Amino acid sequence: MVRWSDGEVTLYGDVGTNGLNVPGTQLAAPHTIWEHATQIAAGRFSASTYVTDLMVRWSDGELTLYSNVGAGGFGQEHKLKDPNSTWTNATLLTAGEYSGNQKWDLMVQWSDGELDNYVGTTTAALGTEARIQNPNSLWTHNTVMTTGDFTPDHRTDDLIIRWSDGETTLYADTGVSTLGTEHNLVPHA
Fold this sequence. Notes:
Elements: E1 2-3, E2 9-11, E3 25-28, E4 37-43, E5 53-58, E6 63-67, E7 76-81, E8 90-96, E9 105-110, E10 115-119, E11 128-133, E12 142-148, E13 158-163, E14 168-172, E15 181-186
Antiparallel strand pairs: 1-2, 2-3, 4-5, 5-6, 6-7, 8-9, 9-10, 10-11, 12-13, 13-14, 14-15
């Protein structure tokens, strides 16, 4: 899924070794409310077996979860946070199985480098906050954050960070309140 600078949202299904499924499916036209979507993370927060949910942090600090997103549209909308100044400081979002539960958790990096995990996030509420790391000036250089299943435990709990200098780090088997084992994937430029 891509949110373009003009607010258009395009879903490219079945991405694989043959590349993108072009032209893709337009889920939102240009110059809509989606111009204000600041951070987006895919996850599995509802009862679905598949990763079909979308967490969106809006420019005004609102946090919205869309469940059952697909080529047919954004599914059901669930407001988890009203617009607020605290959440305008959330700079990066990702989701994964950090707690080992079937439902995923939301990980949030804040502008001061603090990293929090919201355990047990559902369509009804943001999960319980678990601090992974206190404010940290080094982590303000984290520019991209995503989670995947890259280790033998077969859980989506491996955090990948790309730093402002180009370095890329894998934190394997990240937990509820701790970063996983650090592995440098790409050295800094």
